[in-house]
Structures are given as structure tokens and as C-alpha cells.
Write a structure and sequence with these properties.
Elements lengths: L9 H4 L6 E5 L3 H13 L3 E6 L2 H11 L3 E5 L8 H11 L4 E5 L4 H9 L4 E4 L4 H48 L16 E2 L5 E2 L1 H8 L10 H7 L12
Parallel strand pairs: 1-2, 1-3, 3-4, 4-5
Antiparallel strand pairs: 6-7
Helix pairs in contact: 3-4
């Protein structure tokens, strides 16, 4: 058996809310029994893979919601190696199936961070509970990962805004402290010791712009024959 099983119950094929599962089991009788139990529980069995390489290919092709992976598989690649390869490309829950596991294999399996273990033979209720917990845990991890990315993006945006604000503030020119100004000509001495017109000094140390006018007092002194500010006399 090396292809997707064709005996999925019709009522389960049309159930959009049922989760899809890939079975990786090299014992055909055991695989068929697991398939029957899963269908009875309302899951969609996408395929049964009999070795590690086929399991990887089926995951790439079918994108199941969960994988039931037998640890001991025939061929050059066991279930632990297949899981490692799958987890490098896909974020999906994998549950190990095993009849007995030696300590070395268990330690290898643990490193792959499986979402559960089922010791064969297992009860239908145990199968259902383990799968549901794995699916819930996977959903929670995806949501946390999404929130983490959104938070990182928000922090990046905040840092960008802070950088822009600091850049803008660095360009703002301000006047503060004591400003030496000539009592006679009103020239101002800058921080380098040079004297300059007060207009130039203010322009170089602030964002102010000037428009030149003649005040009413000076207008009367300079242009007595012209009434530049008729409203000032009223």
C-alpha cells in the first residue's frame, strides 16, 4: 500500500470541519485499523505512507493537519529521521506511534519535539484525546507565533518612528542661554566669537524667517512726509 487510501467514508469527505491526518505505518494491517478508527472519530485520512521518504513526499503534497508517525519504519529512514525532515519545512503536529522504544531512540525522538506518544496497542479514546490535544497545542503555538511576529513588527515601527523623531529633533534649531548683543549696533556675537547682524544670528539658530518692514516710530523719523501708518494716529 503506497498511495492514498480510497475507502474514506463519503460522509467524512464532505465534512469541511474535520481535520486531515497522514498515517505513517509500515504494517498494513495496523495501518488499516488506525485508519478505520480515525474515520470513526470523524477525521479525514489523506493517505497511508509505509516509509520515511514516502511520508515526507506525502506531507509536501497533501499538507495534512497532523501526522501519526510510527518510530520504527522499514528502509534507510526511520520515523525520527522522517520527522526531523518534515519539521524543517512544515509546522504541523506529529504524534509518534511505537510498541516499544529503547532509551537511545526515545532521546532522539524527544529532540524532534513531538506533540505526543501513543504506545501500541492503544484504545480509541486514547487516540482521540492525544490527537485533540496535539491539534489544540499546534493551534495555540501558531497563534502565539503570529502575535509574536505582529509584536516584532510593531516594535520595528516604533523604533523607526523614534529614529525619525530624533532625526527631526536634531535638525531643530533653538536659542537658549545668554546671547551677547551690542548695545549700539545690535550685532550679536555667536558661539565662535564672530559678530553678525541680529537677523542673521536668529536665522542661523532658529527656524524663523524675516520680512523687513519699518515700524511706525522709524517711519515718522525717516519718512515724515509720508503717512505709512494712518491708523496709528487715530
Amino acid at each position: 500500500m503506497n498511495a492514498a487510501t480510497n475507502n474514506i467514508q463519503p460522509d467524512m469527505q464532505n465534512e469541511p470541519s474535520s481535520k486531515s491526518i497522514l498515517i505513517v505505518e509500515d504494517e498494513s494491517i495496523i495501518a488499516m485499523e488506525i485508519e478505520s478508527r480515525l474515520q470513526k472519530l470523524g477525521y479525514r485520512v489523506l493517505a497511508i505512507a509505509q516509509d520515511g521518504e514516502e511520508a515526507i513526499a506525502k506531507v509536501d503534497e497533501l499538507k495534512p493537519d497532523l501526522v501519526l508517525m510510527d518510530i520504527y519504519l522499514k528502509g534507510p529512514m526511520d520515523g525520527v529521521e522522517a520527522t526531523e525532515a518534515i519539521r524543517k519545512k512544515h509546522e504541523l503536529p506529529i504524534i509518534y506511534l511505537t510498541a516499544n522504544t529503547d532509551e537511545q531512540t526515545f532521546q532522539r525522538a524527544k529532540v524532534t519535539e513531538p506533540f505526543g506518544y501513543l504506545l501500541k496497542p492503544f484504545e480509541e479514546r486514547e487516540l482521540h484525546t492525544t490527537i485533540e490535544i496535539a491539534l489544540y497545542k499546534a493551534k495555540t503555538e501558531r497563534e502565539l507565533s503570529k502575535y509574536r511576529r505582529e509584536l516584532e513588527d510593531s516594535l520595528k515601527e516604533r523604533d523607526t518612528l523614534i529614529d525619525k523623531l530624533q532625526d527631526a529633533l536634531s535638525k531643530v534649531k533653538t536659542l537658549s542661554g545668554l546671547v551677547p548683543i551690542c548695545a549700539a549696533c545690535k550685532s550679536v556675537r555667536d558661539d565662535k566669537g564672530y559678530w553678525e547682524q541680529i537677523e542673521s544670528f536668529i536665522r542661523n539658530h532658529s527656524e524663523a524667517e524675516f520680512t523687513h518692514l519699518v515700524c511706525p516710530t522709524c517711519a515718522k523719523k525717516l519718512y515724515p512726509e509720508i503717512d505709512l501708518y494712518p491708523d496709528e494716529d487715530k
